[in-house]
Amino acid sequence: MKRPGLVMGLMFLALPVVAQVDPYKRDLIQLGYEQPLEGRSPLGAYAFYYHNQPDFLRTNLTLRLAVAPVYVDSELGISGVLGPNTDLGIGLTGGGYADGYSEVDGGTYKTGESFDGHSVEVSASLYHLFNPGDQIPLNFVLRGSTHYSVFVADDTAPGFQVPDNRTTFNVRTGLRWGGIEPTLYPALAMEMSIWYEGQFRSDSGTYGFANAPFDTQPQSHLFWTRAALSYTLPESQQNFSVKLQAGTSVEADRFSAYRLGGSLPLTSEFPLSLPGYFYQEFSARQYVLFDASYLLPLDSDKHWNLSLDAATAVVDYLPGTGQPGDSLTGVGGGILYRAKSDRWKVILNYGYGVNAIRDGRRGANAIGLLLQIDLDKVADSRFHPLEPGFWRGWRGLFGG
């Protein structure tokens, strides 16, 4: 799918909502980093500050602003534009490195076939709530955007021609019943959703080496669905979550294929996590992914917790990418510390990629660190994060 990053428009199931413009003031920081222990890999990291301000200038306006290194994502939400249950969002997003591409094939990160990309995007979104007053909201989302990309060589091989600059027109629509809060281990949430996204490019053609070019499709169509549940036992505070996702595509290419791998939870609206693998190691035309996690408190105050994670997928690789075998499994675990006020939490985790190929052998290891800080803790912890590609300024700052 689109470049890594963070999403907008998730709803927390246990709270009444008017529509998808967030009505609560928020200040939140999220950090994540993942380091494979074998082989050179694309950078897996994110960092952003999120601010949401209702009653911005007028009572029906909400400003959403998110800032990360060399990248900004903003949206002005206007409540009740087409009736009391339909909101409008006008977005402006842009900055460095968000449209870069990292080529990985057979467990090898090919820096000579990878490149940077910078972008700017304007968008308009409609959010309609079908069932106001119900505990689990049913929302319709329709979003259109114009996205301009500039591609430049980084450690790219001298004979490798990067893609021409292009404009892409995107349309996304979907139905979401419930939603998963994009935070570390949400206490209670569920989602069933189905989506379509079309990408229409002003420039297609080929890029890469003259004797082995890559195709860029003039248009790509993606269809995917997700069912998820997160629940916390009231007395013991043990938490478990399960998630089943599946997607297919028509005319997918390297800019639109689904990307699976790694275990960073906030790198996209629909993260396709596989513990122990490189971040976005696999490009797929189709996939089915099941993952589950379990959180066990270790002390009476519930500050220290043991986490266990597992994921397995069946994938149809994009031609020219992937590895032998279409089945992928990863497992992991870690230690999470949660402050008493729940204003911040941090987790150090480990992942093992069972089917990953490294130096001709199966199996790979990775460690990671996740930090969440809520600067303005409120009873309702829903928030709308960012668009895919947001965190990738880190790659430019630290060399990828």
What report would you give on this structure?
There is one protein chain. This protein is mainly β and 400 residues long. The chain has a single domain, classed as Porin (Beta Barrel), CATH 2.40.160.50. It is built from 1 helix and 20 strands. It has a 16-stranded antiparallel β-barrel. Strands 11-12 form a two-stranded antiparallel sheet. The two termini are 20 Å apart. The relative contact order is 0.21.
Sequence-ordered SSE layout with sheet pairings:
Blueprint lengths: L25 E11 L7 E11 L6 E8 L2 E8 L7 E10 L5 E5 L2 E22 L8 E16 L12 E14 L9 E13 L3 E5 L2 E5 L2 E14 L6 E12 L7 E3 L21 E16 L6 E14 L9 E12 L5 E15 L2 E14 L18 H6 L2
Antiparallel strand pairs: 1-2, 1-20, 2-3, 3-4, 4-5, 5-7, 6-7, 7-8, 8-9, 9-10, 10-13, 11-12, 13-14, 14-16, 15-16, 16-17, 17-18, 18-19, 19-20
Question: Main sheet, how many strands, which sense, barrel?
Answer: 16 strands, antiparallel, barrel
Distance between the termini: 20 Å
- What CATH architecture do you see? Beta Barrel
**Rg (C-alpha, Å):** 20 Å
Brief summary:
This protein is mainly β.
What key attributes describe this structure?
400 residues; Porin; mainly beta; disordered N terminus; 16-stranded antiparallel barrel; 57% strand; 2% helix; two-stranded antiparallel sheet; disordered C terminus
